[in-house]
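Q: I'm writing a short explainer about LicD/FKTN/FKRP nucleotidyltransferase domain-containing protein for a general audience and would like to include a description of its predicted shape. Could you first generate the structure from this sequence?
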Amino acid sequence: MQNKGSVLNAQRSRRYDRLRNSQLSPKPNRDYSVGSEIFLTHDVLLRSNKHGNNSTDLDDLVYDNEDDDDFGKPEESIYKEILESFIIKVKQHSLKNFKRIESFSTINLIVITAVALLTYTVTIFYKQSFNEENANASTFMDQPVEQSPLHKIIIPYLNELYPDKGLEDEDLFDPRLPPAALLLYLQTHIVATKGQLKQNFSIPFSWEDWVDLDARLRYDDDYLVEWLALHSHDFWNQIDDFRNLNCESFALLYGCENNRNFMSKCRDLDDQIPGYPYKFEVTGPTNAKIKEPGRLLYGGLYLKSQMPPPQQIYLLDVFGENGEGSLMVSVEPNKNAKRTQVLRNKEVIKQLIDWEITHTKKDANTFLDKGWNIETLRKRMSSVLTRFGVEKMISSKRHKDINRKQTFLALREVTDHGRAEINNWDFNDFRWDEVQFLNDLSSSSFNEEDGNYDQRLYTQLEENENFRLHNGYHPKYLFEADLYGTSLGAHYDWRFFSGSFMTNDYRQSVIHRLSRTWLRFCFENDLKTFIAYGSMLGWILNGLTLPWDGDIDVIVTMETLDLLARNFNQTLIVDYSSKDGFQSAATGFLIDINPAYYSRVKGDGNNVIDGRLIDINTGLYLDITALAWTKNYLKEVQMHDKLKRLVDKDYELNKFFAIESDIYGQTLIEQLEKLQEDHELIHCKNDNVYTVSELSVMIPSYFEGARAYFPHEYEKIIRRFYPEALTRMTYLDHVFDSVYRLWLDIHDCPDLTDEFGTIYVNAPFGTCNNSKVINEYKLTQDYTARHLSMLGEGDWESYEFEKSTESKPLRVDEFFSLYAARLGLSEDELVSLYL
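A: Of course. Here's the predicted structure. Afterward I'll give you a sentence or two in plain language.
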């Protein structure tokens, strides 16, 4: 008889197989994708020229007429005119490009001819000087890139775009396509305008480009049938109501009926909106526990119709030959009011392909064979930025010079070759005065003088403080994907939740990418952070995260948290690091700062996390918490064991054997008060405490292969939080193999432990021949050996902690496993590509 655990695993395995099969098999034709086309009107062209703008940008493809309230009204492929006009402009405004125009109606031909003639007339005055210069500047000789089959980015619609080539449609969602198209879009803009990224420059955005909403919004008929089979036959005559969900039927089907909080965040629609799949919309987070298929729908619908775009996109490591700097560009929230696809739109893709072929002197067959890859586009982007002098640079040491009125910004590391050295933190990094902060916030000059402050967060700060004044606590801000009957959704952000079926291996690959991007981002911007708690324990043992961890914990200084809020809240980070090879830019990571961050008391416990870095493909996240020194902390907090262990590491033992317990207790309080008076006692909102001295010397190292900082007193800190952890070599069905230097699942390697999970006295470490274990060892053996050697020597200054010394990816990502299977590559061949 199966136990509950095995039944759950079998169910999850079936769901995973079903998802995998859906990824590997053709999808049904989409009939509900909002924004499968881009809707324009003829007067877009007229307005463009009326205001003296003779350039047509891809921004125009998502122009939204404020007077047009039709959600999904199709137009007669009018955006082709915009595309053709754009082609004409970039190709030196030559009339011979009219031959490329395919079948148009008479009125379309009249409009495009008028625009093209106007453009041609304007350019004729400077044709000799401008065209010759631009022709040389806009032709690219791409540097050769060592390319594996997995480097090639999957492009949709190719069979439709090139019907004579006999291509097969590829339906696997490649998360690298929008990062690649974004680079191409920026290149077209910079070339077309000769490097002018003006103050009003911003880019359109659609979550549907970046997140696989098709998978989240696909209705699960199998689940419906299973549900109806278990309930009264009275529901069978209402099956159509369940297929056309509204708030009531959704709640009944997915286990949240009679939940007021859910109903307050769900709104029925009077009419079915063309292109929108259901009869209700989601307006915000709910604490209702929803069955998993419903959770996927809930988050997906919010992304589709309600989720605001990010404030900006941070293109990490696109400057320089090896990524010596980054570019940050603004997102204009109103440029895509209809939330249509932009970078995945068929016509936009065709335009970018045409631009690629023209400006690299390729033919269509060569392009279709090689396709796009991130590394080639990144190097070309760096060349374009340098060639056209996009040099509005800011040092990572001058955060307060960042101004929100700037529409783009380039940042570079200030250290030689990106070398990490021993760092020193002091009291000023942690000082925080909430009263002064609120006084500044209420000042009439606050928002004007601090133009770098995120306007969205600024509004939330005021609203949060007003809420606290009336209710005594802040409203909960960061929500998880609470699931019905299980706690598996607790480590996923509710908006980006993609399913709890994720295997341990793939979860670790997401955490691997999360931590590497976070560390690179912080290092480049001189933000002070270190890996903490269970994640720090994993680092000590082998430089990697613990395989059973559902997330990753990082600590920042209070000064860094305030800078994150001011400069980078709601920033989507795309990591183009060349070190990651074909995994580069494989997802985006959203920085989301809790607007209650300024208050450093625990309150009702719902806002102890100060912010998150969220993987938008899965919803897995990295928790950000800050440490601060606050004036009245000991007066506001209840005396607890965490505090007492800070001044007596053996508190749990001594509290039972103290001869005079009252005197012992009072002595501990006096010691804590002395630490507070000396500006030594720092704390997070969950009352984890440290001393400034413990964090005054930060040593460079690596975590998950990327450069990182850790407190020199790391062993002392870990023993305080987890007294027995450093000597415990078995935990949660895992055993630490000292030869492989990895935590191994005892089910993969049964010869290491007995039936009770106890390690054999002479356990045969280094002999487990499980294929998964062998492949992980191949990927990590050099890295873990270096890590343990560094910890043993302790001579941190002797190592060259430069960007070039970071490791290649150490984990196999789920998407690339699916992609490799599609290409017919074996598991060993896939691992060899990582190596």
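A: For your explainer, you could say: The CA atoms of residues 184 and 352 lie 7 Å apart.
Q: Perfect, that's easy to follow.
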